[in-house]
Design goal:
mainly beta, 4-stranded mixed β-sheet, 58% strand, Immunoglobulin-like
Length: 92
Amino acid sequence: MILSGPPDKELSVSVIVTPEDKYPFKIKEVKAQSGYNIRVTLEKDSGSKPNRYVLTVKNTAKAKLKYFDWIIIRTDGSINNEMKIHVTGNIY
């Protein structure tokens, strides 16, 4: 995920997380590794089948800088119970 833009604009990126039918899972926890310059939210799409989740990452930095962080997703899945998503911020 890349968040790029001026610090006075709201910068956010959303992705949809959908388990495969043969490898179902539920998300138990989502957090940023450091969380200094981003805020992470997760919403379950209750009307969808299979379970789908909307993961949103928002920039919270108020100064010009570049940063890197990781989103850590923990699931109850039997194959891979942890996923990581790299986040890059370019606030100019």
